């Protein structure tokens, strides 16, 4: 009858401008799809060149090499007898488009340009591409000679069209179009398209995966149909981790789920589904059928090919499954770990060095590296030859097999506790015990000699000796003495990263890991060019609250008992003198706000788009049970003062794993000035007036100015 169609989608760990590696991974996915009976194969967005090419899209080389890769795909026997849908940039009439190129048996069937471009948050597609704004319009595209020589075609259809095979009709969406309020699948479905495809370049954000899954399932719940989604996976050269989750859905239910986090460079999902299930599902939706009778038709590209076979009565069909979502703690354990592995192997370095202070942030970073070691050992145990080859190259041992995470950790991870006269024995012990439990190569050192030398130079030149405030010094002296310690630790971290393996008779260098969380960066509670300055930071997009929950997860799942005392200790920078041998300085007291408050400020500032006045208006309701309007005003003002005074630090922020939508990353996500009028005079005056009105309304007499 020709009703059982077999389709394949994939998640590929593509790398920007790695045309050779990208081609190899595309070929692998096609081979797997064909071996499992698929007649159609979908790949991620811009998979030929890699999604994260950024301003390299302007270069003619990127277009040229993309067509060279396409030619290799077209001429290969591996792509015969399967419809291949690949992504690449295409220049049409001197306008650059983000396209799908769909081909079969050395013939290009359709080039479909992206209609809705992603241009918010981390995405800047309008910088490089133009959206195709001609709905249901198709033009002739003149192929470059390199492609004409393979296909024998001079022109091919270019535009908003669908494919009509012998047995069904397919329509393409590209990433953002699924999220748009007027998604193409709505009109395509009304026009009889039964299979929708979506090639994505969607990155990981904590607690986001369910939104993508819900959108895919809802796309076919109202309109019926089969929805096939492919996605990029891994780190393709910047702060984002693309989290896979390739999936296939039919009539509102998931039938195939790909992994969100894994070290597999190529993952292929294949599903066999009954087209009659789509047709019967649609038959009883009268509102859909009435709308379908009035829809403007799409141009159909006829394809002399079927996704089914004539004798398919006994072919087993896929059935709905329940999607399993990771908890946020699992996401933190897996996502940054996979990102670190990609960065390590692709940077050709030999491991990581982490200044381990014995506090929550650096301990969480250490746990993520330990989780990465777990993932490497698991992948090798499951037969992943790519991971094994990478691990052997990293440790410089062609016979090595990583089996024990602690043993592998010892080889590739160095931790360093940098004590000063202001450090407590408690944090030293915590760092040492955690290092023992995860297996890292641990170094203890003291920075006092370096601090005294630096301060001594200043004293010789100026004739003045700065003092801590507890010894009668000013706040300026106090801060300067703290910053000297912090910055010396950064210098020593890079020195030990370059030479530690040399001292051990091993080749290579280490990447320095930072461990400033998203809340501290937002507040600016860090020293510019201290240990927050590193090569990469796996927790820079994660809140303190989530990190605490992650630490608890590691206690339970990795049996890291050393974390218990770290969890119970108050966060402290340990940069001021001890009092009776005990820490007197705490982070929250220094900041003048709690980490919980910081998370709220961050979400209101970035996600809710709130300035000082709007934030105050929202918080007087949110905190009405615990704070007066005057207290809320004081808190909001303090936050914005500190945020704006320290915003300049974001310009040098270490590249961080992006995991939270209120990240203050200055590079491309949170574009703001770094020189503010920190008095916020107009904005704060509006707050003052509102406080006065509220207090008069409540019968409270004003006796002092609002802070």
UniProtKB/TrEMBL annotation:
Homohexamer. GO terms for biological process: 'de novo' NAD+ biosynthetic process from L-tryptophan. This is Glutamine-dependent NAD(+) synthetase. In the C-terminal section; belongs to the NAD synthetase family. Pathway: Cofactor biosynthesis; NAD(+) biosynthesis; NAD(+) from deamido-NAD(+) (L-Gln route): step 1/1. The gene is Nadsyn1. Pfam families: CN_hydrolase, NAD_synthase. It is an enzyme of class 6 (ligase).
């Amino acid at each position: 009858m020709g009703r059982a169609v077999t389709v394949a989608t994939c998640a590929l760990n593509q790398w920007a401008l790695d045309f050779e590696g990208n081609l190899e991974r595309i070929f692998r996915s096609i081979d797997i799809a064909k071996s499992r009976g698929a007649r159609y194969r979908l790949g991620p967005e811009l998979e030929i060149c890699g999604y994260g090419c950024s301003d390299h899209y302007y270069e003619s080389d990127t277009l040229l090499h993309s067509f060279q890769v396409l030619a290799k795909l077209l001429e290969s026997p591996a792509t015969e007898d399967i419809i291949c849908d690949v992504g690449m940039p295409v220049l049409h009439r001197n306008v650059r488009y983000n396209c799908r190129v769909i081909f079969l048996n050395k013939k290009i069937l359709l080039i479909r340009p992206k209609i809705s471009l992603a241009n918010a948050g981390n995405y800047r597609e309008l910088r490089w591409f133009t959206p195709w704004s001609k709905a249901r319009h198709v033009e002739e595209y003149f192929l470059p000679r390199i492609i004409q020589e393979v296909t024998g075609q001079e022109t091919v259809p270019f535009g908003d069209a669908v494919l009509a095979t012998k047995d069904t009709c397919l329509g393409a969406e590209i990433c953002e179009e699924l999220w748009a309020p007027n998604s193409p699948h709505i009109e395509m479905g009304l026009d009889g398209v039964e299979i929708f495809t979506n090639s994505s370049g969607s990155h990981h954000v904590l607690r986001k995966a369910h939104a993508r899954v819900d959108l895919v399932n809802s796309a076919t719940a109202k309109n019926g149909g089969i929805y096939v989604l492919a996605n990029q996976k891994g780190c393709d050269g910047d702060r984002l981790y693309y989290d896979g989750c390739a999936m296939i859905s039919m009539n509102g239910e998931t039938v195939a789920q790909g992994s969100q986090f894994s070290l597999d460079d190529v993952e292929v999902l294949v599903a066999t589904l009954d087209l009659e299930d789509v047709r019967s599902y649609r038959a009883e939706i009268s509102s859909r059928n009435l709308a379908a009778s009035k829809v403007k038709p799409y141009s159909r590209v006829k394809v002399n090919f079927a996704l089914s076979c004539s004798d398919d009565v006994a072919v087993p069909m896929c059935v709905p499954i329940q999607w399993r979502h990771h908890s946020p703690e699992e996401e933190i354990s897996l996502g940054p770990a996979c990102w670190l592995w990609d960065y390590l192997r692709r940077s050709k370095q030999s491991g990581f060095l982490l200044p381990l202070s014995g506090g929550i942030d650096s301990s969480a970073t250490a746990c993520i590296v330990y989780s990465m070691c777990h993932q490497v050992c698991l992948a090798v145990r499951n037969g992943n030859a790519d991971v094994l080859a990478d691990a052997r190259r990293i440790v410089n041992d062609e016979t090595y097999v990583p089996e024990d995470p602690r043993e592998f950790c010892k080889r590739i991870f160095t931790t360093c506790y940098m004590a000063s006269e202001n450090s407590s024995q408690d944090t030293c012990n915590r760092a040492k015990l955690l290092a023992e439990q995860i297996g890292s190569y641990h170094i203890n050192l003291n920075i006092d000699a370096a601090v005294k030398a630096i301060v001594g130079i200043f004293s010789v030149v100026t004739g003045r000796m700065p003092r801590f405030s507890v010894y009668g010094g000013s706040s300026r002296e106090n801060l300067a003495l703290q910053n000297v310690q912090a910055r010396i630790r950064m210098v020593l971290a890079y020195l030990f990263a370059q030479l530690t393996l040399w001292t051990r008779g091993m080749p290579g260098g280490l990447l320095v890991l930072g461990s400033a969380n998203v809340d501290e960066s937002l507040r600016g509670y860090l020293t510019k060019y201290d240990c927050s300055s590193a090569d990469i930071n796996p927790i820079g997009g994660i809140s303190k609250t989530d990190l605490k929950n992650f630490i608890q997860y590691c206690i339970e799942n990795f049996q890291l008992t050393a974390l218990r005392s770290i969890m119970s200790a108050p966060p402290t920078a340990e940069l001021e003198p001890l009092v009776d041998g005990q820490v007197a300085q705490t982070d929250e007291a220094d900041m003048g706000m709690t980490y919980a408050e910081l998370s709220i400020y961050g979400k209101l500032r970035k996600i809710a788009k709130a300035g000082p006045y709007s934030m105050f208006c929202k918080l007087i309701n949110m905190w009405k049970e615990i704070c007066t309007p005057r207290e809320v005003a004081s808190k909001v003002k303090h936050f914005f003062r500190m945020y704006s005074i320290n915003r300049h630090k974001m310009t040098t922020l270490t590249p961080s794993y992006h995991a939270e939508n209120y990240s203050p990353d200055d590079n491309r996500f949170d574009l703001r000035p770094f020189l503010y009028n920190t008095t916020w005079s107009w904005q704060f005056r509006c707050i003052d007036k509102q406080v006065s009105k509220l207090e008069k309304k409540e019968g409270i007499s004003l006796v002092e100015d609002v802070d």
